[in-house]
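Record format v2
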Amino acid sequence: MDYKNIVFNKPYLTGKENHYIYDAVNNKGQLSGNGFYTNKCQEFLKDKYGFENCLLTTSCTDALEMVAILLRIQPGDEVIMPSYTFVSTANAFILRGAKIVFCDSRKDYPAIDEKSIKSLITDKTKAIVVVHYAGLACDMDYIMDIAEENKLFVVEDAAQAIDSYFESSNGEKKPLGSIGHLSTFSFHETKNIISGEGGALVINDSSFFQRAEIIWEKGTNRSSFFRGEVDKYGWVDFGSSFLPAELVSAFLYAQLENIDIIQNKRKEIWTRYFNGLKALEEKGCLELPKTPSYGCNNGHMFYLVCENIEQRTGLLKFLSDKKIKAVFHYQSLHKSEFFKDKYEGEELENSDRYSNCLVRLPMFFELENESIDRIIDVIKEYYTL
Amino acid sequence: MDYKNIVFNKPYLTGKENHYIYDAVNNKGQLSGNGFYTNKCQEFLKDKYGFENCLLTTSCTDALEMVAILLRIQPGDEVIMPSYTFVSTANAFILRGAKIVFCDSRKDYPAIDEKSIKSLITDKTKAIVVVHYAGLACDMDYIMDIAEENKLFVVEDAAQAIDSYFESSNGEKKPLGSIGHLSTFSFHETKNIISGEGGALVINDSSFFQRAEIIWEKGTNRSSFFRGEVDKYGWVDFGSSFLPAELVSAFLYAQLENIDIIQNKRKEIWTRYFNGLKALEEKGCLELPKTPSYGCNNGHMFYLVCENIEQRTGLLKFLSDKKIKAVFHYQSLHKSEFFKDKYEGEELENSDRYSNCLVRLPMFFELENESIDRIIDVIKEYYTL
């Protein structure tokens, strides 16, 4: 039978990207960062999600590096984070000299296991970095409480978590990224809202506002200068060039404007997968994503967890043979070539299980129902072999 | 009299930018970094300037940060560089813990005073960073010799120096950026060749190739993986996300394709300024740029040096009153708010003189002869007051 190829990801274009890029390039007269569209995007994100402050960056990695500088991470400081995450979560802090203390994931979904955090805290711990994997909220009430008790900063790596929420025990619904002291988002082409490469730093603790702007602008007080607050600008702190070019922000704005349409469609796809594969979970063949009671699904990723690595290898090959591109994801960072000799902690059972058993299915705006149904059928076929 | 406003800089568009961006976005199917246009730009730069290897970055700042990581700069290492430079030259190394040792500029033009370098070398010195200010070559024969004698790395901060050359004492003409072990370029909107924000790392010492690619790709061996050299990729080193989005590279490619046209035009403007202002220099009113015998002018910037700060303040105001936007430039980094308490060296007389006395005149592709002539006339008028 002649199957149609189903790719894993296809960047979605709203149709306005070229228009705004053209406007940025040909009309607005500023191509470098911190211009018209950068501001539009920042204001959009603040308005829609109630973020206190927000600065676009060239990547989520760069936003994390800004965090590490803002928190004044020094050699010897310890930072707790899940091992099941992207390398940048760790690299950003390692570049400042931090010792990374890796924590396990939850058994029921890949978020940091909040109950394991306490035992990892020492008098050198400076921050807890949580990752809202697949846009599924970590238990932020619990985590913020631990942090407050121990005077630690909380950073939300919300790379995958745009337009997702946490419901606090008092019933308050908070957007992910608005809870920790600092948060980071990604607009990489594999995300819901994209600009090819791109990211944002969200600053919820106002004591970081001024310095964040300085670090963003290469360690200078250029922003104050343009607001007329100082009469010339100069070198006042560490910093880097974290600003995206205006054409990147122009592209991003076309996406943000259409966020509700994008999100609705992605959540429909997610739900179709979920309903179609439920029977397999009920039979005990595999695990589907668990949306925690305090969280919601933001249609970022549809994953499933196989029983073991052999089953996963078999499933990926079976899908590939039918021209369906499904992929695994992170490998536990504490077992990486770079870190394995430095790791002194315990076994991280769940992190390793997701490393070995998790599969991501194709997930993009233009994925047709027909394709989703075929993917579901092929997975069902695999489990009846 | 009603003067036309003359801005300081106006980004030039070749006309193909939107076309290539459209192609990257709508046809090529990859928006993240390290795609079709990134590769096109890198190949273009290698072919045209004989660079051994080249990686596009999100900014020249980021390219400098890659350099600092590649050189394995550690706390306590010393790096020699001019004080008359942009903050990023220093920040990139400070972020890795380096002690910056600032050097004076030459008396005749703002390049590092190569004769002052030797006395600044200690057993902790790791690298010499030279800045080809205004695209005017530093004395690279002399500097490479000192470096070799002392086993130091040489980094060319060639942010302003695309398409400029150094003529070696043996008569060999080498593009700036091809001489040091590592070099960096900027494509910020104020440069000759632009992408809004953007930069490139040039790697002339092949021992850095493999690690550069890893650092560029967030500390992973993803590039090796895509070439089929390893069967999965993972975390193997430090790193960050240094890659520009494909739309940035697509924009840049439209510029690079037209580099000869851009360069010819800019050099014409430069020459018109130079000829028009020569008489004032001969009268001793001001200094014009000095192109060293081993260098050439790449049309990046037209600057002049006033006798003192009062004369400069007066000139800038006089130009501004006639709606001409001329600007000063760097302030000596060793005297900045951030560094002044850390500086232990001698007075840097020339660096301070350029900080106080240098003026940059409007310089961009579309600057008309009529405007140039008016600027020249206004400057002449100022000096006859």
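The radius of gyration of chain A is 21 Å.
The first helix of chain A runs from residue 17 to 27.
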